[in-house]
Amino acid sequence: MRTIAIIDDDIHIGNMLEEVLTKEGYGVMRAYSGTEALLLLSQKTPDLILLDLMLPGLSGEEILPKIKSVPVIVVSAKIDVDHKINLLLDGAVDYVTKPFHTRELLARITVALRSATVNTSLLHYDGITLNTANFSVSADGKDVKLTRTEYAILKYLMMNGAQAVSKSQLLDRISVDTPDCTETSLKIHVSNLRKKLRDASGKDYIEAVWGIGFKLKNN
Questions:
Q1: Nearest 5°: CA angle at 22, between 156 and 182?
Q2: β-bridge partners, 216
Q3: Alpha helices (H) in 54-175, listed in sequence order
Q4: From CA 68, how far away is CA 64, in angstroms rounded?
Q5: Domains in the chain and their CATH numbers?
Q6: Does residue 176 have a pLDDT over 90?
């Protein structure tokens, strides 16, 4: 399931967007201020962000440059052409003016996600780099040779940042690439992955979260 973050302090618009996106099969994250948005994004990385500009605390213009590797569609009532151009140059992939038609917004979301899937080949997390184009992994600049299952596990953990993921969720998401991985063998695969990353970097990147599953941690 693709997840979309709605960053907007207008509760009515946010609720409407959440309802529309949920019906379309998207997962939804919500933040109501720029500060809350940065905290939310530090915990979990969505597939796309819908960003309002006039937010309490940090404005949309202030947090846009801080968002890395996630497509951002600005959704704002501001209609100045030069302002739109500057936001696009600062990293936004699209700009939708309020009020908007939900069908048009959904189409723009589809296009942005499609482009992100094509163009994004590198994932980064605290010294780890994973290349989805050639399936290579490095930790602190040193190559790490992973099995297919270990690679799939690491990729999903990196896509969730420091957010803990359950064992069942992890098994479900990697089952397409590694149908042979079971709940019994998952712990062994994670243990081998942890050791390989530690041998390359001297850091312990993966930790078990009691009663939940696993997560990446900063070193």
A1: 30
A2: 206
A3: 60-63, 81-89, 102-119, 148-159, 167-174
A4: 9
A5: 3-119 (3.40.50.2300), 122-216 (1.10.10.10)
A6: no
pLDDT at 130: 87
Q: What's the burial of 70, exposed, middle or buried (CB within 10 Å: 0-12/13-18/19+)?
A: middle
SS3 label, residue 29: strand
State the Cα–Cα distance between residues 16 and 149, nearest whole angstrom.
Answer: 39
Is the bond preceding 99 in cis, omega lying within 30 degrees of 0?
A: yes
- pLDDT for 119 beyond 70: no
| pLDDT tens per residue, range 1-26 | 789 999 999 999 999 999 999 999 99
Burial of residue 210 (number of CB atoms within 10 Å: 0-12, 13-18, 19+): exposed
Are the beta carbons of 2 and 113 closer than 8 angstroms?
A: yes
What are the start-end ranges of the H helices in 120-166?
A: 148-159
DSSP-derived secondary structure letter, 24:
T
Cα 164 from chain centroid (whole Å) = 13
Distance from CA of residue 111 to its chain's centroid? 17
Local confidence band at 195 (pLDDT 50, 70, 90 cut-offs): very high
The model's confidence at residue 29, banded by pLDDT at 50, 70 and 90, is: very high
* Residue 70 to residues 3, 73, 81, 139, 214, Cα–Cα distance (Å): 11, 10, 23, 22, 23
How far is the C-alpha of 69 from the C-alpha of 47, rounded, in Å?
A: 9
Residue 65 is classified by DSSP as G
C-alpha to C-alpha distance for 16 and 62, rounded to whole angstroms: 25
